[in-house]
Amino acid sequence: MNWVDWWATYSTLVLSVGVYGMMALSISLTLSCGLLALANAAFMGIGAYVSAIATTTFELPFYPALLLGTLGSTLVALLIGLPVLRLSGVYLAMATLGFGEVVRIILLNLDITGGPLGLNGIPLLTQWWQVLLALLSTVIVLQCLRVSRIGRAFEAIREDETAARLMGISTHPLKLLAFVMGASIAGLAGGLNAHYTFTLSPGNFGFENAVDILTMAVLGGIRGLPGPLLGGAIITLLPEVLRDLQEYRMAANGLILILVVLFLPQGLWDSQRFRGWFKRA
Amino acid sequence: MLMMCLSLGVLPVHAADPVRIGVAEALTGPASQYGIPILNGFLLAADEINSAGGINGQKLLLITEDERGKKEEAINVFKKLIFQEKVLLIFGPTLSNSMFAAGPIANAAHVVAFGTSNTATGITDIGPYLFRSSPMESDVVPATLKAVGAHIPLRRVGIIYGNDDAFTKSGYDVFKSSLQQQQVAIADTETYARGDVDFKAQLTKLKAAQVDAIICPCLAEEGANILIQARAMGLSAPFIGGNGFNSPALIDNAKSAAEGTWVGSPWFDGNAAAENQHFLRAYRQKFHSDPNQFSAQSYDALMMVAQTIKKITFTPQLDKNRELLRAALPMVSFVGATGPFSFRPAPPHQGKPGGYDAHQTPFVYVVRQGKFTLVR
Questions:
Q1: Where does a domain end: B224, B247, B265?
Q2: What is the CATH number of the domain that holds B327?
Q3: Do A10 and B79 touch (CB under 8 A)?
Q4: Rounded to an integer, what distance in angstroms lies between the CA atom of residue B129 and that of residue B323?
Q5: Strand partners, B363
């Protein structure tokens, strides 16, 4: 197949790989400081809806709309993060999943979001380089964060929160920072996603999507940035790659995920395992 | 391999080459309960056409892809069928939401996207390459209400519907506006969420409202439960359902509680017309099961496309052939399993030309002695 046909066929898939890479990074940020928060799909939904309403109903240009979407999910994350982050472990997971349901129900019942019919006729505005740029900026910001004092504090909180607090790390503001930054990345990813899929409906950002995003990060491995990117790409590409298996496709999809988690519990990208290979050699 | 693919793109279409037709339906996941009967309808029609020698000597080749009822997959499948499989037109996708996502792709690539199960308003606003053979709720509902009104008095009605589902919500919107047009008072409106099993609270209120009939734009699953619980609490007002009630599952599950329920739908399995009887017989023979409305609509859709292709003289260029089909398809005048059918141009949307909606008279029927019976 020539390049033009290849791109015409797979451009949406390539954009999805980038956008879901951002989503996996966004959840790995909260995971990296030990928070099992599952609200990222909801933040993606908020970003997507706000920016799509901005471009369709208010006919704003693309960039301000993207900015509004990102700000929207950031603001909501700040408001719900303050009380919710006092929880930890499974309670935090439950509270954030509950938040996701609340967002879905609100989207279903508002008039401006089109209710259960969703928003249709969203213009095609997302270009491949915009997704690439957003993804690269996310990676650069997160890499700078990792090697900074804040990144090391995240790691300390993840390993032992009490010890971290005794060392003088103010854990609550830092956890809030990770949560809110994750929401901003998700909001931006949502805005980009809305403008190449033409339509949004409340079901797009529900429980299933939240679990998908978590799977991406866990499958890829959360110790480092390449892991979530790899996981996002694999989960997005796998259903298309396995298309020839037809009705067995989703079963094969699940089987591959089970095998990876069974035999590579640290995820596909595990820098410690890689170092082990070099030592042996 | 690369050379082979490259040359495929520029190869002229020979008379012996099959006509490549894309089918994008939800074959796995929750929407597959509609997608699989739809695919069966296409397979039956393709079999009949090919065993009769094809169209002008060309066989039909269906290229089927699963879109799982998800918007991203619907887009990916549409692109694959258009740019890689080089199909003449695409049937599908199954859900209206998927069509809102994938339709713009086909329209921009100047390929006909033909929905056989999309009933939401606004589908044909996407552009002039959008066709659908499924009548909108806004066509079916007013006719249903008129037919029912001729048999029983309709002055005060109650409504119960699912407010978290695109299909039931748009059904409600349409019922509400046609009731207002026909000056029927809505005494009470109740809602439920998908997956609910207990409707007693809502039904108690509807009973207290003392209505002539209860409008239920519900799917058959919830509909059967609503009917059973209504009759159990002594609510005797007849129910009026939309497309979703047109399912044998309604009578199977609700049994005697379904008695006296009114349904409006584009297909009626008891329709004695020869086309429908032939379809019923052929479907049962091939699949050893009963067809439903979705298989009837997809069967008719492929048959009317075949009838249109017969009149087209294809050129060696796929782009031109796709345009020829788009130009010829609106002229369809067809009688099939769903009765007489033609297309109606959708009004322009924001100054841009629209696609083509189904122009069809719905069947209105009532459940009598455990069977759907046509209303005259």
A1: B265
A2: 3.40.50.2300
A3: yes
A4: 9
A5: B265
Considering the domain architecture, whether residues B343 and B355 belong to the same structural domain is answered as yes
- Does any domain span residue B113? yes
Question: Based on the domain organization, do B143 and B261 belong to the same domain?
Answer: yes
- In angstroms, the Cα distances linking B110 to A59, B25, B106, B202, B316 are 26, 20, 6, 48, 17
Quick one: B250 and B320 in the same domain? no
Chain B residue nearest residue A250, CA to CA? B28
Q: Which one of A1, A197, A247 has the shortest CB-CB distance to B84?
A: A1
Distance between CA atoms of A150 and A145, rounded to whole angstroms? 6
d(CA A255, nearest CA chain B) in Å = 17
Residues B110 and B145 in one domain: no
Per residue in A164-215, pLDDT tens? 999 999 999 999 999 999 999 999 999 999 999 999 999 899 998 999 999 9
Domain interval for residue B43 = 13-135+272-360
Q: Which of A12, A108, A124 should we substitute to test contact with B (largest number of B Cβ atoms within 10 Å)?
A: A12
Tell me, yes or no, whether B214 lies in a domain.
Answer: yes
Decide if B73 is inside a domain. yes
Task: Name the pairing type of β-strands B156-162 and B262-265.
Answer: unpaired
- Residue B287's closest CA among B44, B49, B31, B42? B44
Residues B69 and B89 in one domain: yes
Facing B166 at nearest CB: one of A8, A201, A239: A201
Residue B131's beta-bridge partner residues? Answer: B114, B356
pLDDT band at residue B15 under the 50/70/90 scheme: low
What is d(CA B266, CA B262) in angstroms, rounded to the nearest whole number?
14
CB A224 within 8 A of CB A143: no
Q: How far apart are CA A281 and CA B14, in angstroms?
A: 60
* Nearest-angstrom CA–CA distance, B267 and B246: 8
In the CATH scheme, what is the code of domain A14-280?
1.10.3470
Please work out, in degrees rounded to the nearest 5, the angle formed at the alpha carbon of residue B224 by the alpha carbons of B223 and B225.
90
**ipTM of this predicted complex?**
0.90
Compute the nearest-CA separation of B5 from chain A (Å). 5
**Pairing between β-strand B262-265 and β-strand B363-368 as defined by DSSP bridges:** antiparallel
Task: Report how far residue B365's alpha carbon sits from residue A135's, in angstroms, rounded to the nearest whole number.
Answer: 56
The domain segmentation of chain A, as residue ranges, is 14-280
Q: Helices A249-263 & A207-220, crossing angle to 10 degrees?
A: 50
**Residues B227 and B258: beta-carbon distance below 8 Å:** yes
pLDDT at B376: 64
Does B334 reside within a domain? yes
B51 and B149 fall within a common domain:
no
The pLDDT tens digits for A123-137 are: 999 999 999 999 999
The verdict on B192 and B254 lying in the same domain is: yes
What is the signed CA dihedral for A42, A44, A45, A49, rounded to 10 degrees? 150
What does the alpha-carbon distance between residue A17 and residue A40 come to, in Å, rounded to a whole number? 17
Same domain, B153 and B242: yes
Nearest to A101 by CA among A35, A50, A39: A39
